[in-house]
Design goal:
This protein has 272 residues and is of the alpha/beta class. It is 38% helix and 19% strand. It has two domains: 2-100 and 240-271, Leucine Dehydrogenase, chain A, domain 1 (Rossmann fold), CATH 3.40.50.10860; 103-237, NAD(P)-binding Rossmann-like Domain (Rossmann fold, 3-Layer(aba) Sandwich). The protein binds 2'-monophosphoadenosine-5'-diphosphate. Belongs to the shikimate dehydrogenase family.
Length: 272
Amino acid sequence: MDQYVVFGNPITQSKSPFIHTLFARQTAQDMVYHAEQPDRDGFTVAADRFFAQGGRGCNITAPFKEEAFQYAQQLTERARLAGAVNTLKKLDDGVILGDNTDGEGLVQDLLQHQVPLKGKRILLVGAGGAARGVILPLLAQQPAEVVVANRTEAKAQQLAALFSSYGTIASQAIDELDGLTFDIIINSTSAGLSGQLPSLPHSLISSQVTCYDMVYSTQTTTFNQWAKDLGAHRTLDGLGMLVGQAAESFMLWRGLRPSAKQVQRELRLQLQ
Ligand code: ATR
């Protein structure tokens, strides 16, 4: 039976074994997927052991995504630009391929929720690893513009420069966003994890705008609650992105696209 694993520390909270087990059942794949928690300095040893024992592929979550990027012997373009790897696959010739499916997971979730991206103006709030991981797939959808805004402005400028040859992308100081309009606002900051909000002007929120928080929780996230209270057209959280990135990894490993919708429904029920 083909072996897959997710590496993270901590890992007990991971939904990946649940998601991939459902995907495997759905598509009748002979595979098992489990979770493993290497020590903080133990990723390489754990990955070496896993592949030496015949493992076919793995997911990587915090804090090992940059190490997995170094570990990969070959990278997809989206992983190279993300600077981080969330999926490894042992190719038929033994080479370990590194990919990053987070951004495509976000894009697929937006599209599945009938949020078109082509020709739209997208505000990406935050300029950390989570933001960097989604920019290339967003630009590939040919939005009118992606604008990156971050508390530390220099980091937003650096990201916009890094991706400038891949589409229309700019950075904007957070305190100069007042009066600008966007169709979609994506929160990639970790502010909500401590109950905080990035300090965005209220004028960004209208009955036309869709807000997407890349994190998810049992309740409405802090950012989405803020957007709802101000009358946003729609708010979505990152549960769909989680399932979407898993579906992309599964696709890379097995060559089959599982249905994300059903799994998302089951996961949402499990959260309640
Ligand atoms: P991740 O990999 O989750 O993106 P990260 O690389 O540490 O984590 O980036 C965290 C992001 O959240 C950054 O954009 C950070 O802003 P700074 O670059 O200014 O630090 C943003 N962030 C975290 N807490 C925030 C807060 N309270 N308000 C606004 N932005 C915040």
